[in-house]
Amino acid sequence: MSARSGSLAIHLRKIRIMRRRTILPALIAISRRRLLPLALATLAVAAISAAQAATPSETFISNNIQRSFEILNGKELRPEQRSRQFQDLLLGIVDMKRIALFTLGQYGGTASLADQDRFVAAFQNYAIASYQTYFARYAGQTLTVSGSTERAPQDVIVMTMLRDPNDHSGQQPLEVDFRVRSDTGKPMLVDFSVAGMWLALEERDQFVAFLDHNDGSIPKLTDHLNQAR
Questions:
Q1: Confidence at 36, pLDDT banded by 50, 70, 90
Q2: How many CB atoms lie within 10 A of CB 192?
Q3: What H or E segment, with its residue span, contains residue 197?
């Protein structure tokens, strides 16, 4: 190889080395600039999807309350069939005993087990009729879960909006909230509110007032509920 050829080869090697030192880092920088927004977008989508995913309590309310409306709206059902299906649904999703004992307030702790059991049975029949009356008012409307708040572990308030699809007046949808407890191994409904009024709290105030005026007699309250059906 001549001296001139050797010098040319050395010069070409230097050019290749310089290209690797300048072009390769530039390509890496460009790739990083392109990949970073893509990675951030992917993380953002994942975060939004996680935030929008329904919680177990929200799914529990959405599925079962919607099912209750389907039963009440079922035109193919005879009245006794509708009543029976609605009752069966409620008994599967509502913790009747827990609510019943809660509504006794301070009187529940001093009642005998026999008096408690008779009251729970009477309250269950009374509550089913009350729930059916409340829900029947909104038959034909649609319920949408808007979110949930954890009051304590396994104690969640699920917020929903009730809309009448035939109402075009621009009126705001009605807020209906449900309290769900899961400390018994599965989610159970323990109270619900319409426009801020909680049913179980209202019942407790009424029952305790009745007991205050009847010497704390739970059998008298039991008889009163049986007559009120």
A1: very low
A2: 23
A3: strand 197-198
The answer to pTM > 0.85 is: no
Q: Which two tokens stand for residue 94?
A: 């509502």
Fold of 56-228: Nuclear Transport Factor 2; Chain: A, (3.10.450)
Residues in the chain: 229
Chain centre distance of CA 145: 7
- Each domain of the chain, given as residue ranges in start order, spans 1-53, 56-228
Phi, psi of 163 (to 5 degrees): -125, 140
Q: Which of 12-21, 162-171, 178-187 has the highest mean pLDDT?
A: 178-187
CA dihedral 53, 154, 93, 131 (to 10 degrees): -100
Alpha helices in the chain, H assignment, sequence order: 3-52, 56-73, 79-93, 96-103, 113-136, 199-212, 218-228
Separation of alpha carbons 157 and 178, rounded Å: 6
Contact 45, 53 (CB under 8 A): no
Measuring CA to CA, which residue among 154, 72, 88 is closest to residue 124?
88
Give the torsion through C-alpha atoms of 77, 82, 85, 90, to 10 deg. 150
**Residues 47, 52: Cα–Cα separation, whole Å:** 9
Computed on alpha carbons and rounded to an integer, the radius of gyration of the chain in Å comes to 33
Q: Which of 184, 119, 186, 171 is nearest to 141 (CA)?
A: 171
Q: Which tokens in the block code for residue 175? A: 């807020």
Q: Quick one: 127 exposed, middle or buried, by C-beta within 10 A (0-12, 13-18, 19+)?
A: buried
